[in-house]
Design brief:
nine-stranded parallel sheet, single chain, globular, TIM Barrel, alpha/beta, 9 strands, 334 residues, 13 helices
């Protein structure tokens, strides 16, 4: 090959200058096309994000309220952190949405901090709400929170803070945390008329915070009270019905009854409450082999079923069981 030919077709690693130029131009064109595609993808994603309008807290409250239908109850899984929330949300897909709303469980939030339920501070409770509420809103899933008794005289500011954090509803109980459950109706529960006033204050606070459709699940703890002289089942039931009707009249969406972890509510009790309150009854799914199933409770006619801290307890029990098996020489899988 002549020197001129070498200059015209300079070889470098087996490639001529013309071939190198062709490869370089092709690579540049590929980069341009890739960049154009990426920009289009980003633009499309941004357009979709711009098109998505985050639902307001009150819009989610309306959605939550509409899910309370007697005999077609809303089943509420209770969460305690973002991990438990994401786990539940993973059950939903374009084809099915079994998780229609979620609730917090103060017992589980406290236990995750190695605290007793009654020792969970307001700020610790609200901190969890602030973490999970935006995720719920993004998924267009209503969130209802466990606000215990409304933290006494702070009830208005507590509900305001919960709504501002993104909660569309709340449980507010009629038992006095500092009194315990061993002092009977007059010693362990707020006076009925006082509790009615407190519930109205809570609803007004929610409305003032731009959530007039706030879903109040008024918890009545009369069945949870310890056995004391004169406190018969008939007296408990009469008190439960009287308070339930008053709470509904005050604006509650449902009245939540439970009997603690010892026995749960009996079938006849749930049936009577459903009859007297026109189905606007919420109950706790009792963690027992003899407890009601969600299907059974739906047939009785309740409007709402809470799982309570059971998912947390199941999760921690699974961690403990698996860890012990592994530490004792076992494998990951049982």
């Amino acid at each position: 090959m002549s020197a001129g030919s070498v200059r015209r077709t300079w070889l470098h690693g087996g490639l001529t200058i013309g071939r190198i130029r062709h490869v370089r131009e092709s690579a540049c064109m590929h980069l341009v096309q890739t960049a154009t595609t990426q920009i289009h993808t980003i633009h499309t994603s941004s357009s979709r994000a711009a098109a998505f309008k985050m639902p307001t807290t009150n819009e989610l409250a309306k959605k939550l309220k509409a899910l309370h239908v007697p005999s077609k109850p809303l089943i509420l899984p209770n969460i305690w952190d973002t991990a438990s929330l994401y786990t539940l949300l993973s059950l939903n897909s374009a084809e099915a949405q079994p998780v229609k709303a979620v609730a917090t469980a103060s017992f589980a939030i406290a236990a995750a901090r190695n605290l007793k339920d009654e020792d969970l501070s307001l700020e610790q409770n609200l901190e969890t709400v602030r973490l999970i509420a935006p995720i719920c809103a993004q998924a267009e899933i209503p969130l209802t929170t466990d606000l215990q008794d409304g933290y006494g005289d702070q009830i208005a500011s507590v509900v305001t803070a919960a709504v501002q954090a993104g909660a569309s509803g709340a449980n507010i109980e009629d038992s006095i945390p500092s009194a315990g459950f061993g002092n009977g109706i007059s010693g362990s529960l707020y006076d009925k008329d006082e509790q009615v006033k407190r519930l109205k204050i809570a609803l007004q606070a929610a409305s003032d915070a731009d959530c007039p459709d706030f879903v109040l699940n008024a918890r009545c703890d009369v069945f949870k009270l310890d056995e004391t002289p004169g406190l018969t089942n008939n007296i408990r039931m009469a008190e439960a019905i009287d308070r339930g009707k008053a709470y509904l009249q005050a604006g509650a969406t449902t009245v939540f009854y439970w009997a603690g972890g010892v026995r749960g509510l009996r079938t006849a009790e749930v049936e009577r409450l459903v009859k007297e309150l026109d189905g606007r009854v919420a109950v706790l799914l009792w963690r027992s082999s003899v407890g009601h199933s969600t299907e059974e409770l739906a047939k009785i006619g309740v409007a709402r079923i809470s799982i309570g801290p059971s998912l947390y307890l199941f999760a921690m029990d699974s961690v403990k069981t698996a860890a012990l098996r592994i530490l004792q020489g076992g494998s990951i899988m049982a």
